[in-house]
Design goal:
- The protein is of the alpha+beta class.
- 25% of the residues lie in helices and 19% in strands.
- It has an eight-stranded mixed beta sheet, sandwiched between helices. A four-stranded antiparallel beta sheet has the order 1-4-5-6, covered by helices on one side. The protein has a three-stranded antiparallel beta sheet with strand order 8-7-9.
- The longest helix has 18 residues, at 272-289.
- The chain is globular.
- The structure holds S-adenosyl-L-homocysteine and zinc ion (ZN) (4 copies).
- One zinc ion (ZN) is lined by residues 383, 385-386, 390, 399, 405-406.
């Protein structure tokens, strides 16, 4: 739904940004080691490398920036360390656990939650928050569903908290249980974690356990150190250090054949590469802890992400397959199951489990395709020519003999572009060629007209701010990231899809 046709994904504006990833010795911001990016500009040399915050795509949240070749003085390093220390949460996880213990001992009438500070308050602290709004009589049920108590950080590009609709969360949990898993590593899935925790405390024979890894430290108020780790999934950083990492490692150790699955629902803003690299590290932790042999060499995983990232995810995880199940959200205008019937959510489950084992609800219209050996959307027709159920978005796609593949129902074959696209697409855009010289046959990065000598110029502050702004705005040249930006705009404007 996000792409308009066969335009060259590599052609992004004047210049672009590429993620190089997490490198040894990278400087740190309050969110752990920064990621290395490369900035390329039209007609210029290879591009200059710089570090920026891994977690925050809004520079208002974290404005860390450093050229790779920049000399950082001892004084600045010391100041940075001090800054990083000062930008940690005011209470430690340990302290929050203690506070919680005291909080639950209070009578209902003394249980307050500050909505402004998003914090449980002890009576002695009421005074400090006297001009803030609070929620009174915080019940045990409310404490057990923090994802409903805390307001979702949806306006912040950084967190982009989109919470599962109850139906989708229940479906995921039933699926996990049905597949025989007893432990869930919940990466950025607080609502799934809380559903598991709630059931575990209510139902005696409910054996599933969950460990939540999330960057949202507010959750440390409600969970012990064995239930929650403050974690950054873009750089595999445990804020709680080795102890937290060890908690995770222990959790992944499969005792008495209790099978583990990782379920991740990251923000959709791109950086698939960074996410994949962290997930591989978590999978490696699982592999290392395992003493007995596996039948399955890869840790089972559900990666929940929009369908248009399929090729990106498969690039890093070739064993993954995309399921047709549409994941619905509560607080997302586009992906929620509206009153007036079903909106099509673009969010899917990517998994390394055998597709035929992922049973999708027939009552929601999914059916089993015997030829593909997987459950598909009701609208997804098996194409005889492709020999596959080809729809990605749930609508019935049509086969184009010229393109030799199935395409979206709204697309038509354009003889100019020699591929299928929306009827009103502009043909020039698709005239692919190098961004620098305009010739076909190579991309900007390998353009022979570029000199590859590196000119180390002294960067002024404005230039670095401009670059940072571009990275925060997500002006990267990968198509995935372009999709993500488009996606966000669409959400904002609530425009109709293709
Ligand atoms: N659908 C899920 C929530 C997904 S929203 C549910 O209902 O449980 C994305 C989640 O990822 C949020 O909980 C957010 O806090 C978390 N997150 C965002 N950036 C992160 C990062 N860099 N590292 C770890 N978690 C992150
Ligand atoms: Zn940061
Ligand atoms: Zn099929
Ligand atoms: Zn086809
Ligand atoms: Zn075509």
């Amino acid at each position: 739904m996000a792409d308009g046709g066969c335009g060259d994904a590599e052609r992004a504006g004047p210049g672009g940004l590429d993620l190089l990833g997490l490198v040894p010795g990278a400087p740190s911001c309050p969110h752990g080691p920064a990621l290395l990016f490369v900035k390329t500009s039209q007609g210029k040399e290879e591009g200059r490398r710089f570090y920026a915050c891994s977690a925050c795509r809004d520079r208002k949240d974290c404005d860390f920036f450093q050229w790779e070749d920049e000399k950082v003085s001892e004084t600045r390093l010391a100041a940075r360390e001090e800054y990083n220390r000062n930008h940690q949460p005011s209470f430690t996880h340990r302290q929050n656990v203690e506070r919680y213990k005291n909080f639950v001992l209070l009578p209902l009438s003394k249980r307050r939650f500050c909505q402004e500070c998003q914090q449980l308050l002890l009576p002695a602290e009421w005074e400090e928050h006297s001009d803030h709004q609070f929620l009174c009589d915080v019940s045990t049920a409310q404490l057990k569903t923090p994802s409903k108590l805390l307001h979702p950080l949806e306006n912040k590009k950084t967190n982009a908290q989109y919470l599962f609709a109850d139906r989708s969360c229940q479906f995921l949990l039933d699926l996990i249980i049905g597949l025989g898993f007893r432990r869930v590593l919940s990466v950025g899935t607080p609502r799934l974690h809380e559903m598991i925790q709630t059931k575990a405390s209510q139902e005696e024979d409910f054996r599933v356990r969950s460990l939540l890894l999330d960057i949202d430290f507010r959750y440390s108020q409600f969970y012990t150190e064995d239930e929650f780790c403050h974690y950054n999934m873009f750089n595999h950083y445990f804020f709680g250090g080795e102890a937290a990492c060890e908690t995770c490692r222990k959790f992944l150790y499969q005792d008495k054949g209790e099978r583990v699955i990782m379920v991740a629902d990251p923000p959709f803003g791109g950086l698939v590469e960074a996410l994949a690299s962290s997930f591989k590290k978590l999978m490696a932790m699982w592999t290392e802890t395992e003493k007995v042999g596996h039948n399955n060499p890869e840790m089972p995983m559900f990666w929940i992400f929009p369908y248009f990232f399929e090729s990106r995810i498969l690039e890093f995880f070739p064993s993954f397959r995309m399921m047709d199940y549409q994941v619905d959200y509560d607080n997302h205008a586009l992906y929620k199951h509206g009153k007036t019937g079903r909106r099509q959510s673009p969010v899917r489950i990517f998994t390394n489990l055998t597709p035929s084992m992922i049973v999708l609800p027939v009552e929601e219209g999914y059916r089993f395709c015997a030829l593909c050996q997987r459950y598909v959307s009701s609208g997804n027709q098996h194409c005889e020519i492709c020999n596959s159920c080809t729809s990605k978005d749930g609508r019935r796609w049509k086969h184009c003999v010229l393109c030799k593949k199935c395409v979206k129902p709204s697309w038509f074959h354009c003889n100019n572009c020699n591929c299928c696209a929306l009827q009103n697409h502009s043909c020039e855009k698709a005239a692919a060629g190098c961004f620098v010289c305009g010739k076909a046959g190579h991309k900007r990065t390998t353009c022979p007209s570029l000199s590859h000598t590196r000119t180390v110029c002294q960067a002024d502050k404005r230039q670095r701010q401009k670059t940072l702004k571009r990275v925060k705005m997500g002006i990267c040249k990968t198509s995935a990231i372009k999709h993500a930006i488009f996606f966000r705009k669409k959400v904002k404007n609530k425009k109709k899809k293709t």
